[in-house]
Each structure stands twice: as structure tokens, then as C-alpha cells.
Design a protein that fits this description.
The chain has 373 residues and is mainly α. The protein has one domain (17-372). It is built from eleven helices and no strands. It is elongated, with a radius of gyration of 25 Å.
Length: 373
């Protein structure tokens, strides 16, 4: 029933293997990534100079939305190799079991959750594709929204239509690739860890099974479960520690972009009304990603509680003193809280989701009241 630990680097789930950096190590992808970084860096430099030269807050608000959105996409492209390396290191550090190691019932649950994760990825990719396509299809107001198009018309008026078309095509694929791969890099270690936890909970529940008060066998099973839990939690915390700075950068960029989006919607309502589908698809896509991320963050917190509750349900009364000490060590380890944190005060959970919802409701209320004035 209790499997032997497999060799490091073996993964029980393969459906996100494309997210672990194999694609990013391809020569043409690496060269394309460097070209994209240089291209957007040049655009940002020119646009920043124009912001400083004009020094008009209305001009900044007008193009701030697309300016910071492109900045977020560029950050995704820059940090993709870091995320891939971090995920790959995590997968190599943990010893993975076969998905059928914990019996047929757990194996079926893992297969069901695996299929569910694929559905989530497909829906997310579809929503991102529709949103990026909506912003790529030309509209009359584009020159008032996209700073890149305004730059082309100012600097290369004769070539502006051609340059705009080329830019919109590459922007569609760059944004799609960056957002989809980043989201997949988050789901990949999460689901592998979740499946590992399912099997670990099964092993903990069955520590006493067929033992006939065999203290030595109970000790080996306890140590097996304790080592597995410590290894998984240690590797997960180490992975999150590595991406802590990157997460803070994303958090700051998304916050600034959200403020610029709210300002644009408030001050350029005529342009917004001509882009209902764009902003509706953007809202639906963003909401879906946030819901999934908050759900995964809350589930990560609850996983430690599940381990503790399973441990408490074990009949340990007839164990010897040595096994009781190991059991107590396991309980103490399972009491340590585990959160996906952005900072000391902000964690990815339902509480943070509620705070963001209240802030969003306040912004909508302010915009509504200003429209009535």
C-alpha cells in the first residue's frame, strides 16, 4: 500500500509539460523573445520621453491604459524563464509517486481533477484569445487608445497603416503566449502538489491498516508520511520564496494598470462606449483568472488544515511512546500555516478577494455618482 519513493525529477502529471521551459529553450523562441523585449523597450523609452515632453495629465491618462498593459505583458515575457526555472527546480526536488499508488478511488479523483484543470486551461486560453483578438481588430478610436499607433502616425505617417497592422498581429501572439504560459506555470506545480497531497492523505488515513499493533510498521509509515509532507511543504515554500520579488512586481504593475484603466473609463467615456465588446471581454477574462487564482490560493491554505484533521482522526492511543512522539512532531508540522503571500498583509485567498471586491464596488459607485453630477 505504501509505495517506494520514486527518483527525483519524475512527474506524475504530464499535461503541462510544455509550461516547464522546454518551449522557452527552443532557439527561435529565445531569439524571438529577445527581439520582443528590445522592441517594446524602445517603444516604452520613446513614449516615456513623450510623456515627459508633453507633461499633460490628460495625455498620460489617455495612453496610460495601453502603456501599462504593454508593460505587464513585457514583464511576463521577461520573467517567463525565471518562472520556468523555478517550476522545474520544484519538480526535480520533490519525489513523486505514481498516480495509482493510493488505490483506485484516489486515482479516479486525480484523473477527474486533471481533466478539470485542462478544462480550466482551455477556457482561460479561449477567453484570452477572444480578448486579444478584440483589441487587435482595428477601430477608429485605436489612435486614441494605443500609444504605439499614435507613435507610428507621428513618426512614420506614410508607413503607419502597415506598421500598425504588423504591430497588432505580433501583439496578439505575444500577449496570448505571455498570459497563457504564465497562467499555466502557476497551475502546473499546483496540480502536481495537489495530487501528491491526495495520495498523502490516503496514506495517513491508513497508517493503522492491517498493522495489528505492529509498532515497527506504524513507525515506518509515520516516518514515511512525515518525510513526504515536510519535503513537499519545504519545496513549495522554497519555490514561492524564489518568485516573491516577481510577484511583488506583478502586483505593483497590475495595481497601476487598474488605476489607469479606471481613469481612462472615467475621462474618455465616449471612446469606451465605442469599445463595449473589448472592455466586456477584458472584464470577463480578468474576472475568470482572478476567481481561479483566489480559489487555488484558498485551497492551498485549506490543504494544511486537511492534513491536520486527518492526523487527528487517527487512532493513536495504542502506539508506543516513540511513535507518539513522531505523531506529535507531525501534528506540530501540520499546524504551521501555509499561504501564497504577496506581502505580510496580503495573501491569495477569499479574504483578499473580498477586499478587492469592496474596492471595486467603491470605484464603480464613485464613477456612477460622478456621471450623475
Amino acid at each position: 500500500m505504501f509505495p517506494k519513493e520514486r527518483q527525483k525529477g519524475e512527474e506524475p502529471i504530464k499535461f503541462y509539460q510544455m509550461m516547464d521551459g522546454n518551449i522557452l529553450r527552443l532557439p527561435f523562441v529565445r531569439r524571438g523573445r529577445v527581439c520582443i523585449i528590445l522592441y517594446y523597450s524602445l517603444l516604452f523609452l520613446i513614449q516615456t520621453i513623450k510623456f515627459l515632453y508633453k507633461f499633460e495629465w490628460l495625455y498620460f491618462v489617455q495612453y496610460g491604459f495601453s502603456y501599462f498593459f504593454s508593460f505587464i505583458i513585457l514583464a511576463y515575457i521577461v520573467f517567463l524563464p525565471i518562472g520556468a526555472h523555478t517550476v522545474r527546480s520544484f519538480m526535480e526536488e520533490v519525489r513523486w509517486w505514481k498516480t495509482d499508488s493510493a488505490g483506485e478511488a484516489v486515482h479516479k479523483m486525480i484523473k477527474r481533477k486533471s481533466f478539470q484543470s485542462i478544462i480550466i486551461m482551455v477556457i482561460n486560453t479561449s477567453l484570452i484569445s477572444v480578448t486579444m483578438m478584440a483589441f487587435a481588430i482595428p477601430q477608429k478610436v485605436d489612435k486614441n487608445l494605443f500609444y504605439e499607433i499614435a507613435l507610428f502616425e507621428d513618426m512614420f505617417p506614410k508607413w503607419a497603416p502597415v506598421l500598425t497592422t504588423i504591430h497588432q498581429i505580433q501583439a496578439f501572439f505575444v500577449r496570448l503566449f505571455g498570459l497563457v504560459v504564465s497562467f499555466g506555470q502557476f497551475l502546473y506545480p499546483y496540480y502536481n502538489s495537489k495530487f501528491q497531497l491526495y495520495m498523502l492523505l490516503y496514506f495517513i488515513k491508513n497508517i493503522n491498516e492491517k498493522s495489528e499493533i505492529d509498532q515497527w510498521r506504524i513507525e515506518q509509515r509515520l516516518l514515511f508520511c512525515l518525510r513526504s509532507y515536510i519535503t513537499l511543504s519545504k519545496a513549495t515554500r522554497k519555490m514561492l520564496k524564489k518568485i516573491e520579488v516577481v510577484t511583488l512586481v506583478y502586483q505593483a504593475l497590475i495595481l497601476v494598470w487598474s488605476i489607469s484603466l479606471a481613469s481612462y473609463v472615467l475621462l474618455f467615456q465616449d471612446d469606451v462606449l465605442q469599445q463595449n465588446f473589448r472592455f466586456a471581454s477584458l472584464s470577463i477574462c480578468s474576472l475568470f483568472m482572478l476567481v481561479i487564482l483566489f480559489q487555488l490560493g484558498q485551497d492551498t491554505e485549506d490543504s494544511v488544515t486537511k492534513v491536520f484533521e486527518t492526523l487527528v482522526s487517527i487512532e493513536w492511543y495504542n502506539w508506543n511512546e516513540s511513535n507518539k512522539i513522531i505523531y506529535l512532531m507531525f501534528l506540530v508540522s501540520a499546524l504551521r500555516p501555509f499561504r501564497i503571500q504577496f506581502s505580510e498583509n496580503f495573501s491569495l485567498n477569499y479574504n483578499m478577494a473580498g477586499q478587492l471586491l469592496r474596492c471595486a464596488a467603491s470605484v464603480v459607485l464613485v464613477v456612477y455618482q460622478l456621471n450623475l453630477m
